[in-house]
Queue: 2 jobs
Job 1
Amino acid sequence: MKGIVKLLFLCCTTAILMLCSSCEESLPPISDTFSEQIRLNQIGYYPAAIKKAVIVDGPETQKFMVVDSVAMNVLLTGTLSSAEDWKLAGETVRIADFTKLTTPGTYLLLVPDLGYSYPFKIKKNVLHEAFLGSIKGLYYQRVGIPLKKEHAGKWHRDIAHLDDSIPFHPSTGKTSGYISSPGGWYDAGDYNKYIVNAAFPLGQFYLLQEQYPELVSDNMLNIPESGNGRSDYLDELKYEMDWALTMQDGDGGLFHKLTTKNFEGMVMPSAATSQRYIVGKGTTATLDFAACAAQAYRVFKTVDSAYAEKCLTAAKKAYDWAMENPAVAFTNPEDVHTGQYGDADFEDEWFWANAELLVATQDSVYRNNIKKKAIDFNFKAGESWTAYMRFLGMFTLLDNKEAISEPFYNSIKNGIIASADRLVTSAQELDYFQPIDDFHWGSNSDVLNAAMVMAQAYRLKGSPKYLIGVQQAMDYILGNNAMGVSYLTGFGDKTPMFIHHRQSAADGLEDPVPGLLSGGPNSRLQDVAGGAVYPENPVPMQSWVDQEPSYASNEICLNWNAPMTYVLGFLEHESD
Ligand code: 9MR
Ligand code: 9MR
């Protein structure tokens, strides 16, 4: 027996060696150009993850290889699947499944006739830098301080927008006076600050901190507060929270936004000097603030109790204002034309505020108010800042079982699992293994917000299918998509270079500010009027152009970076 085994072993190794050496001999040289027809996660894969590249118009020979980019030897050969027509992507594709390759390394996928893919890695914590980069992106959005070279590198810039004496617009109900409302992050490619879209991303960032408090420690982000002994992540989040607190009126209500009347030109912050105003006051801003301030209380409790108490007091006061003013909708006043973030359906905001305040205080007032309306568990692309808040409330309740009755907890648990099941099923059927089939403004955030639902199901049940769903959604964002682009600036080989972002457009540097997520394909093409040029009638997944005027497909925004950070952090913690 022994002899036969040995002989077999010898035969096999010889065969493998022969196979490999013959491959090596025929390996084409790596040139500087990589095949655009091979789509994959340009950063890389966790060793145990499903690994599927998409080959567009692949050859009939159906052969592919995974090549170690250093040793230039073939680690795996495989057969492409038979061709499929993908409608959303507008492509004929074959799949190269290299899941079996789990050895850490840097690789290239080779398809004879097409060439090599971009290099990618297989290793543990493969998304660590991208995760930190997506948080550092927030630092680059900071208002009211100079970005110093030592923190910002070549993207350093002058101080701008002190916002220390901002007049009230009559839409606030005040006819005179000023407030000081400094700091915070610029919302997006524009320089305004909006409470709805400060609170919503903060909600997602805080969720990550509560679920995985150890992910970011001090000195990991190289920001001004690094070295103060506290998590750099908390320091960065506090920069935004501090601003949000200044937007609360004496009676508890929140002003809606701090903004110019019209969008500024594509200039550096210090050249954007139009008068800014405090505009509007309403229920969505107030409830969203109440919710995220209650989270801030919990997150900061152990590191800065005075600050935590300040946040909780502000949260309760905001909630009380909303009780007195339960349906004050915001719309832009006639003379203000910047982001509206208007929403006349307050149910999601109520649900979120009740959930966060309940968990922060255990006060039965919030428990009693929370059950008022049925909850919709269905994820809908495009809802984003108008309605995703209900999910944030649900996620917090799922993490705090004791706060609610068992039947209520079970209904949320079952609802989220069923919702995640639908998303997983969709992702298996849809182009590029991602879960959405309708591409709105900010579609990349929809993919990631859906992934967050799958992530909660994974936390509840631990079934691999949910983790796979989240990983494949991230593969889509990082390059396995119909544009072949890794949508996070600075991370990947082909990344957006012309984002709709005023600093990046005006700073004279080739590289855009890094760590910012492009909005992604948007089949509505609202920016054609603004000068974006698309190919004729693009299919939904190709409705994206790397052009500066494309604010509907290629802007960046806080509420897109937020689920990016959440999903990256989740994956870093949960993936092997
Ligand atoms: O720069 C603005 C961007 O931040 C907004 O998301 C977008 C939609 O509201 O509008 C952009 O501003 C454009 C304006 O709407 C129309 N004129 C050109 C402006 C800059 O491209
Ligand atoms: O994300 C917003 C999107 O859902 C809207 O359709 C769009 C037009 O109103 O506005 C988007 O938000 C922008 C905001 O109004 C201003 N700052 C930039 C935001 C991202 O483009």
Job 2
Amino acid sequence: MDCKELKNIWDERYAVVPQQLEKLKTINSVATAFNTNIDAIYKISGEQLKKIITENGFTLSDIENISLSGFREPRDVVLGIAKCFCRGIAEEWVTEDISVYNWLNDKIGYQRLQMGGQGGIIANALALLQIGQVVAHTNSHPKLQAEQFLDLDNLLSFDENGKLAKSVNIARNNDIPLIHWIIEFDKNDTFTLEGKTFTCPKSNRFIATYDPLNMNLVMNEDFISYLSTPNNVEYLLLSGFNPLLESNNGIALVDNAAKILEKWKTANKDMIVHLEIASTQDKAVRKAIAQKLAPLSHSVGLNERETIDLLEIMDKNDLAQVIEKDTSACNLFDAVLYLIKELRCQRIQLHMFGLYLTIQNKDFRYSAEQNLKGMVTASVVSSSKAYNGEITEYEHLTKALGMSASDIGLNELKALADKLSKPELLEKGICEVDGYTVSAIPTILVDKPKTLVGMGDTISSVSLLAGL
Ligand code: GLC
């Protein structure tokens, strides 16, 4: 089959998206927890990066092969940006040192503020998609945080009196704003230092986080009570464990969250729990998330990097290295199959560049066919978000309707179908392996994305919810 025929077949699969978008509106109640914060966005150019490198006294030898992955002092922000820029990777460094925050405020500043944290980002997107009611957990909700919520009647949080109220109107004025710096850079941008030129291989970002509440997984008691009683919440979208550190009580905090989650599940028996792994630097915390929270979740979402990270803490270094060298769908498939067996959850979804892949138990609540519909919907919504940057109108999330799946994705899917000797995977997007159902789609890719932050979270939640 030639490429054009294949594209046509996938255009047809994507044709279900308008219908799935309508079905999303029939979902009555969703909750998101735990992390909601404010993102301060700063787009840095290669030239600006070079300027702060020299201003802060770093030399070529400091910039080549940076191995640091956390702050020793505020000016290490520069090393974090340079590391991510030169490798085209995403990292988030967290700190309890307020001097890092002050340095960022004084020396970098920001171009705009927007909603941050997986919980907050998903809440905005799902409310815009007209889910009946979205309740977002906020451990801090001053006016500045409220302003990052969309002005929508179906988007709620708990106010200072412990009552559910429109998130945008809440002002818990004793709370401190939790601002994370998101420093974005573009593919192919360059800077030259002492005669050596560095070129950024992939648009990405470095995140510098000073956030004493989310680092301590501070929870809002009203939200805890809300889910501890039967409330017909259909889906809980869970994340926010990524800033925890072992040295900061992180393991006990995960244990405590697991106990709360069990209580919530007992109270809301039909609720589907999705856990977004998110990039977690601390290995002991990462292990605790995998061992204690994943088995309690029906569904787990991750990207390529997070897959490698999980393999590393599960003594699968060989496979981790193979994927590190060649981050292909074929290699990642082996990892996801391994993970679903080890983590004992019912469904795992990988979102990688150009392709989404779900492996799930045969008796999962939604069939592979339904899941496929969810994934194509997520592809449209997330690429629309990337294309548009800001999302404030329903149309912003549906702009990519009618766009075709990318060649990159089709090639990845073809290679995977060949590897598995499952030709049906290429055309139908579904096959069976080791008693599990596998579904995969080539995604739409946007040429010049205006934003990438929060993409994974949006993909995971929309593909789960739109699979109904
Ligand atoms: C992390 C960051 C947050 C950002 C989010 C995007 O949680 O702390 O600032 O918005 O990732 O996924």
